Amino acid sequence: MRMPSGIECKHYYADFHRGYHTQECRLIKQNLESLPWHPSDCAKCPIPAMLNANASPDLELKLTIKTKLLGLQRKSFVTAACAKHRTPIDDVFVGCLQCNAERPGLDLFRQALEQDEPIDED
């Protein structure tokens, strides 16, 4: 669903049909350690970019919103883990290193990107 910031996110839900006025982030709703969600939090949320870069079905994300600077600013903190291997993921854009090692096609793609062949200009 499209967030108030205009970006698609699978964790955002809104219902304005027939008098309802419901907006929520379902990822925050699961986290009891986080502050309550506000629609303005979507503008700086890193989750949609992470989901676009890593479409792994085993990716588990945890979003926590905390205050900074004497409670005047809100900051989003994301932790990621692999549900298949039960390991934390350091870089969500790369994904789980064990899952990546299980897919040999990704190694071929990575090797093709790393090759620096000079372009012959005739």
List descriptors.
single chain; 122 residues; alpha+beta; 3-stranded antiparallel sheet; two-stranded antiparallel ribbon; 4 helices; elongated
Give a short summary of the structure.
By secondary structure, this protein is α+β, with helices and mostly antiparallel strands.
Task: Based on Cα principal axes, name the global outline.
Answer: elongated
**How does the major sheet shape up?**
3 strands, antiparallel
Count of DSSP strands: 5
Radius of gyration: 19 Å
How many DSSP H or I helices?
Answer: 4
> Can you tell me the residue ranges where pLDDT is under 50 for at least 5 consecutive residues?
none
Walk me through what this model shows:
This protein has 122 residues and is an alpha+beta fold. Helices cover 22% and strands 25% of the residues. It has helices at residues 26-29, 47-53, 97-101, 104-114; strands at residues 12-15, 22-25, 59-68, 73-82, 87-89. It is elongated and about 55 Å long.
Helix and strand arrangement:
Blueprint: E1 12-15, E2 22-25, H1 26-29, H2 47-53, E3 59-68, E4 73-82, E5 87-89, H3 97-101, H4 104-114
Antiparallel strand pairs: 1-2, 3-4, 4-5
